[in-house]
C-alpha cells in the first residue's frame, strides 16, 4: 500500500510539474502575443470577408476571393470570398504555382484572362472543385515591402464583358489597399504556429539533464526558440520575443533597451528627412 501511495505521489508530483511548466509556457507565449498584437494588430476573418465583398462590388463580378500563402505547407489557401459564386472556393488549397492564381503569386504579375479555356495556365479541374468554372479571370498578387503574401482573384463580370485594362487598374488599387489587412491576418497563423511549436516541445518530455521539470529560464528559452522558428524569421516576431524576455529583466536593463530604441527611432527619422532608405 505504501508503495502504491508513493507511486501515486510521484505521479501527482509529475503532473504538478507538468502543469506548472505548461502554465509558464502559456504565460511566456501570451506575453509575446500581446507584444506582437500591439506592434501590428491582427485582422480577423470578417475583415478579409469585407475586403472580398468590396472587391466584388468594385468590379461587379460573379466572385471575388483572397488566397493567402501558408509557408509551412507551401500552399495558397483561399481564406475569404464574396459574390454569387464565391463561397465554393473557401478553404481550397492549391500549389503556389498552380493555375492563374498561382502564376500571379509566383511571378508577382497581375493578369487579366479574357477566355480561360484558351489559356494553358487555367486548371479546369481545380475550378470544378469549387462548383463554378469561370469564363474570364483577373488575378492580382498581394505585395508589400516584405514580399508577396497572396493573391486576389475576380471571376466573370456580371455584364458578361471580358476584363479590360480599367478593371486591372482598379483591381490593382484594391489589392494594394487589402495587402496590409492580409499581412496582419497572417499574424494569426504565426500565433497558432508559435503555440503549437512551444507546447509540442514541452510535451516531448523533461530536459536532457534528467531534471523532473523545466525551470522558468528553460521555458523562456523554449518559447524563444519556437518564436525564432516562425517561417521567414519575421523581424516583428524577433522584436516581440525580445520584449517578452524584457518582462523579467532588471528595470535598469529595460531603461537601457528603451534608450537604444530611442536612438534607433532618431536615426530612422533622420534618414526619413534626408530621403535615404534603410539598408538591409
Question: What key phrases describe this protein's structure?
Answer:
280 residues; 8 helices; elongated; alpha+beta; 56% helix; single chain
Question: What would you say this structure looks like, in words?
Answer:
This protein is an alpha+beta fold and 280 residues long. The protein folds into three domains: 74 residues, no CATH class; 141 residues, GAF domain (Beta-Lactamase); 31 residues. 56% of the residues lie in helices and 15% in strands. The chain is built from eight helices and six strands. Strands 3-2-1-6-5-4 form a six-stranded antiparallel beta sheet. Helix 1 runs antiparallel to helix 5, helix 5 runs antiparallel to helix 6 and helix 6 packs antiparallel against helix 7. The longest helix has 39 residues. The chain starts with a helix and ends in a 6-residue tail after the last helix.
Following the backbone from N to C, one meets helices and strands in this order, namely: HHEEEHEHEEHHHH
Ranges where pLDDT stays below 50 over 5 or more residues in a row are: 209-213
Largest sheet: 6 strands, antiparallel
Which class of secondary structure composition applies to the elements? alpha+beta
If you compute it from the alpha carbons, what radius of gyration comes out, rounded to the nearest whole angstrom? 24 Å
Q: What is the overall silhouette?
A: elongated
* Strand order within the widest beta sheet: 3-2-1-6-5-4
Amino acid at each position: 500500500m505504501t508503495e502504491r501511495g508513493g507511486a501515486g505521489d510521484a505521479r501527482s508530483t509529475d503532473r504538478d510539474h507538468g502543469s506548472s511548466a505548461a502554465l509558464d509556457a502559456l504565460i511566456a507565449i501570451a506575453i509575446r502575443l500581446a507584444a506582437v498584437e500591439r506592434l501590428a494588430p491582427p485582422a480577423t476573418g470578417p475583415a478579409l470577408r469585407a475586403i472580398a465583398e468590396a472587391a466584388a462590388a468594385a468590379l461587379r463580378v460573379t466572385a471575388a476571393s483572397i488566397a493567402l500563402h501558408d509557408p509551412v505547407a507551401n500552399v495558397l489557401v483561399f481564406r475569404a470570398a464574396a459574390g454569387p459564386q464565391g463561397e465554393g472556393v473557401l478553404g481550397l488549397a492549391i500549389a503556389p504555382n498552380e493555375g492563374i492564381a498561382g502564376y500571379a503569386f509566383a511571378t508577382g504579375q497581375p493578369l487579366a484572362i479574357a477566355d480561360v479555356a484558351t489559356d494553358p495556365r487555367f486548371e479546369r479541374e481545380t475550378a470544378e472543385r469549387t462548383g463554378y468554372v469561370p469564363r474570364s479571370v483577373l488575378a492580382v498578387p498581394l505585395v508589400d515591402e516584405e514580399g508577396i503574401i497572396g493573391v486576389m482573384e475576380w471571376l466573370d463580370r456580371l455584364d458578361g464583358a471580358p476584363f479590360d485594362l480599367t478593371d486591372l487598374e482598379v483591381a490593382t488599387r484594391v489589392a494594394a489597399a487589402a495587402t496590409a489587412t492580409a499581412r496582419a491576418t497572417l499574424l494569426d497563423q504565426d500565433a497558432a504556429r508559435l503555440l503549437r511549436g512551444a507546447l509540442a516541445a514541452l510535451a516531448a518530455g523533461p530536459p536532457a539533464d534528467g531534471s523532473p521539470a523545466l525551470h522558468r529560464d528553460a521555458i523562456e528559452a523554449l518559447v524563444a526558440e519556437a518564436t525564432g522558428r516562425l517561417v521567414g524569421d519575421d523581424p516583428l516576431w524577433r522584436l516581440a520575443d525580445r520584449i517578452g524576455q524584457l518582462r523579467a529583466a532588471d528595470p535598469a536593463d529595460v531603461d537601457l533597451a528603451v534608450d537604444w530604441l530611442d536612438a534607433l527611432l532618431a536615426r530612422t527619422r533622420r534618414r526619413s528627412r534626408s530621403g535615404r532608405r534603410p539598408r538591409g
